[in-house]
Amino acid sequence: MQYDVAAIIQGYSQGYFLMADENNHLGWYGSRDRTLIPLDNRFHFPKSLRRVINQERFSVAVNRDFKAVVDGCADRDSTWISEELKDIYFALNESGWAYSFETWQGDELAGGILGIVIGGAFIGESMFFNISEGSKVAMVKLVERLRQRQFVFFDAQMMNPHLERFGAFSIDDEEYQILLEKALQSNCSLI
Predict the structure, then answer these.
(1) Is 1's pLDDT higher than 80?
(2) Torsion sign across C-alpha atoms 31, 143, 152, 191
């Protein structure tokens, strides 16, 4: 199936995101509150994770196995990533909009974060792990990469306890739209 990639990116550029409901019907959603992962000194993580990072057990890669990251993110008892949404992510990846930021332990995919890059915005769609700490290390390394590349923000969409541990915070839609406008004026690259 062919997808109108430009129309999909336009939707994300206006602050919406795609999700499938419990019946696998795909739709556009917005939120009054958005969760951001800080790219400044508010970002923090446990000392135990610092030890894991210092052990250098994991290497990082971008798009080494995009399909496996999408499948990993969707592999849950209850998921909003339908087969159609997977196909959309594949089309966005082929067009240079969607990325997987991955951690690897040797030749084994340890974890990853699926996201869409538009200008200076990294819009995190989902994350998963196969090996303990794999997604957490991916989060830390991704934040480092986004800082280096001068991204405006890292949108995690919805708050959860896991993200709170990293200093994630919520902003209202008005603030989000201001940041999004700034991000759209930037030209950042994850690779």
Answers:
(1) no
(2) negative
